[in-house]
Write a structure and sequence with these properties.
With about 210 residues, the protein is an alpha+beta fold. The chain has one domain (about 5-210). Helices cover about 15% and strands about 35% of the residues. It is built from three helices and eleven strands; from the N terminus they run H-H-E-E-E-E-E-H-E-E-E-E-E-E. The strands form four sheets. Strands 7, 8, 9, 10 and 11 form a five-stranded antiparallel sheet that branches. The longest helix has 13 residues, at about 5-15. The radius of gyration is 17 Å and the shape is globular.
Length: about 210
């Protein structure tokens, strides 16, 4: 049976995940919002993309998606806006809404990066077949890892009035930790994200490349 969260994740990552040189990166907000169809951006706001800035020589940089006022000049779209994204969007109170929030939250891990930004790089796993894309795991036996641990899962709970909570679990690969199953709690009220934080990481296969940027 096809996992609907995996399908949605693959569609989004096919649009934004790339290691290409950032100057050739194509940002298509309309197509991204078609995928993130449980997230609404109010009138006067816009989905924007911060691409890596090579002037940040000291630390490197990451690319990411965020939402800000439409009239804000492109040159002013810096890191301060990422914290306001959750105030500026409305999310459908559902399990899929929580999953799409997680996908938007983690775009920084799959978009172009520079130098130290590489520490944030992840390869997301939506099924066992995705392990083939990870060279370090091609000849490893991971039969001890259940298939359910290699697929996204969302537990959605409605609280009092307009409050609700989502517990999102998903697996990813990083060269600084290995194959990790993370669980994130997302709280929502009146369609607005009020809090989101990781609560548990389960290491399914430990690995450290030893690479230092």
């Amino acid at each position: 049976m096809r996992n609907p969260y995996a399908t949605k994740g693959r569609k989004l990552h096919s649009l934004i995940a790339t290691k290409r040189i950032f100057r050739s990166y194509v940002f298509e907000p309309g197509k991204i919002l078609e995928v993130l169809d449980r997230i609404t951006i109010p009138e006067g706001m816009a989905l924007r993309c911060h691409l890596i800035d090579l002037s940040r020589h000291c630390t490197g940089d990451n690319s990411f998606l965020y939402v800000c006022r439409d009239e804000v000049p492109e040159d002013d779209n810096k890191y301060g806006f990422i914290d306001d994204t959750w105030k500026n969007i409305t999310v459908e109170p559902s399990a899929m809404g929580m999953w799409q929030t997680y996908l938007l939250m983690t775009t920084i891990h799959v978009m172009p990066f520079y130098w130290h930004g590489g520490y944030d790089e992840r390869t997301f796993v939506f099924s066992r077949s995705d392990l083939r894309r990870i060279p370090e795991l091609r000849w490893k036996s991971l039969s001890h890892v259940e298939d359910s641990k290699l697929q996204p899962e969302v537990k959605f709970t409605r609280g009092l009035d307009s409050e609700c909570m989502g517990m999102v679990s998903n697996t990813y690969w990083t060269e600084w930790g290995g194959l990790i199953r993370e669980t994130v709690i997302i709280n929502m009220e009146d369609g607005k994200i009020t809090a989101h934080c990781p609560v548990f990481n389960e290491v399914l296969f430990r690995y450290d490349s030893g690479i230092c940027y």
